Every structure is written in structure tokens, then in C-alpha cells.
Amino acid sequence: YFTFQWSFLAVGQDERTDPYRSKLWKEAYGNVLELGPGFSSSLKHLHHKTTKDSSYNVDPDVIHSYTALEPNPFMYGGLQENAEKNGFRVEYDHVSYPECTISGTEDPHKELVPFKIVRGTLDDSDNIPQAILDGAPYDTVLTSFALCTAANPEESIRNIMRLLKPGGSYIFVEHIRHPTPGDPLVVEDNGVDGQFWGKMQDWVNPIWNIFGHGCHITRKTGENIANMDGWKSVDHKMVRVNDALIAYFLPMSFGKAIKA
Fold first, then answer.
1. Most exposed residue of 14, 111, 156, 248, measured as fewest CB within 10 angstroms of its CB?
2. Read out DSSP for the chain?
3. Average pLDDT of every residue of the chain
4. Where do the TM regions start and end (predicted)?
5. What mean pLDDT do residues 166-170 have?
């Protein structure tokens, strides 16, 4: 059942998202935290370099460590596979996931960038996994379609800010409700009637939420990030996509916020 849900939501998602994520993810650096990565196909967009053995691995001069905070163990096999393909050394946090029976990277090369998989969310400030707190502060926090499924998205944003170091970057691509027609932050309209499809989102959202594993398509995530106190700057834009029927329900907000 979950496989069906994930497959439904993922139809064409990478193709629609990669033009924006490929540029933004290049700006990730240092000690990185990704919230709700799923299989994290976006790892390919981080800074890479060719190593001595001709492998094309994540660049250790840019990415020093990577922590993936994912609540659903269903994702861990694919997440580990993608991490290893990108030259990370994978380990699991057995405190947040004590029932873990998955081994990390079989050949733990010391020179590879560490990649820790932690089970949990940032929905509740009192229940942030200790491994996440121990790894803070982070230079970069990333989210791709994580806040649309968060039980408490405002609390998650506050905790993202809390975990960032001053001057650190929060980089995001998130599903949103269609913005008002004529909104200057919409950089690509693609002929989509935002007023009509916004109403369609309102109507479909309760059903979508059930079949989409808790995904909400009516949140104003970019605006909520921008309106939160504590940022030095927020640069975000919105796009409407019309390449497939499902895309009409999934406009996106993407951008970067810098902590004051």
C-alpha cells in the first residue's frame, strides 16, 4: 500500500523539480542536515569531484558530513543505496532506530564523507532525536517536499532555524497551494489557471491527504518560511507546472533562507 502511495506521488516529480533543485543543492556546504529525504535522489545535485580511482563522489572539501532525518524505515534501503552511489559512508543511529537490522556501508573507507541515517522528525521540539542535537549546529539544512507531510510544519521550521548556525542556509523545494494570480513571486506561470486549480486543491486536499501518506497540498510554505522571525534574508520563488495532470495539483515554492 505504501509503495503505491509513494509511486503515485513520485510520478514525474524529479523531472519537474531538478531544474530548480540542481542549482540550489549546489549551495549546500559543511555540516548538512536533510529533513525527510525519502530515497534522496537529490544527492546527485551536491558538489561532486572525481577521486583517484575515477569515482565521481561528493566533494569532501565542500560537504563535511551529512545527516538524513527520515521517519519511515521503508525509505532506508533506497536512501543508503543513493548515498553510497554518491560516495558517502553510511551508518545508522541505533538510538532512534533500535530495531535496526540494516548494516551500514560494508567497506567503511575512512576517507569517505560520513552519512548518518536517523529516524524521526522535527515536529516536536521535545522529541528531536539526540543524534540530531549532537550534530548541531548545521551549516545547511535541506528539505524536498518534507513540510507538506509534517504534522507541525511551523514547529519544524522553527526547529530548522534552531539547529542552523548563525549565517547558515535553509534550502527548500516544497509543495504549496497555488498562489494568487499575478503574484510577483511566481516566476513560471506556464499558462496554468491558479485561481481554478487552487480551488481544486482545496477540494481534493482531504482525499489527497489520506492517499498521499499525510501530504497536504494547500499549505503556503514559502510564505510561512519568509514570515518567520529570525532570518537575515529569504529569497523564494514559486512555479506552476503543467506537464501532467498531477502537476496541476503540485505547484512549488523554492528558495533559500539565511539565519541571522
1. 111
2. -HHHHHHHHHTTHHHHHHHHHHHHGGG--EEEEEES-TT-GGGGGS-EEE-TTS-EEE-TTTEEEEEEE-S-GGGHHHHHHHHHHTTEEEEE-TTT-TT------SS--TTSEEEEEE---SS-GGG--HHHHHHPSEEEEEEES-TTT-SSHHHHHHHHHHHEEEEEEEEEEEE-PPPPTT-TTEEE-TT--HHHHHHHHHHHHHHHHHHTTT--S---HHHHHHTSTTEEEEEEEEE---SSGGGGG--EEEEEEEE-
3. 91
4. none
5. 98
